[in-house]
Specification:
By secondary structure, this protein is α+β, with helices and mostly antiparallel strands. Strand 5 and strand 6 form a beta hairpin. It folds into two domains: about 80 residues, OB fold (Dihydrolipoamide Acetyltransferase, E2P); about 140 residues, de novo design (two linked rop proteins), CATH 1.20.1440. Helix 1 packs parallel to helix 3. The protein has a five-stranded mixed β-barrel. A three-stranded antiparallel sheet has the order 8-7-9. The termini are far apart.
Amino acid sequence: MPHRKGVTNLLTVKGVVLTQKPVGEQDKFIDILTDELGVLEVLVKGAGKINSKSGCATQLFAYSAFCLQKGKRGYILNSVSPIRIFYELRSSVTAVALASYFSQIVQFSVLPQASNHEIQRLMLNCLHFLALKKYPEAILKSIFELRMAALLGFMPDVVMCRKCGEYLPDRLHFSIEDGTFCCEECRSEADTLAHSVEMTAGTLQAIRHIVLQDTERVFGFRLSDGCQEALFAFSEQFLQYHIDHRFSALEYYRAIQNPMV
């Protein structure tokens, strides 16, 4: 729980730095994702000084314990202690771009003053695996997109074919718009014209795992190369359709992945 001291009007929270914006020559604003108070904008005074005490604990993607003072116009940093900095991210341009994409999704979609414990856990876990470089970035991207969609209330219906009830058809078409799927045998002309992604049973099982498993187990699956492209296409399109927003970091991530396109 956030800790308040009424006399000094201080608030202590743990949060992930999503964005930072310089103000003048020495100060900056940061947005931090907290687990109980949504995304907070915080003024960090003297951040640009060489001997700044806030230093690494307020840099992009840092997970820190923040002591904040409530001012007339918002929060001002009083003190901060780093918990996990994720230094390793800086060695990969694509990892930084992907982490920025995750941050933009969170900043756009998280409601103020809302409890976000699961979203914060998802963000921290994805940053952890990005930093370790032991998990494919494209898979992490799909996990984040689908898990965020589910946490925001856009859970796709992964149970069975909406027409015949088949649990695991060999081939199916998953609708982007209504989040349901139908098997190849039940597909109608209307389904063909609808915005959907064709996939196999393996991709469907991966989607089920991502949206239904506990947060700590969501990363524990393998996917054959033949099933990956459908997962990548579905997760990105599904999230973007339902939150109805374009993200500049995603465009940049695509550009540096395919520089000749």
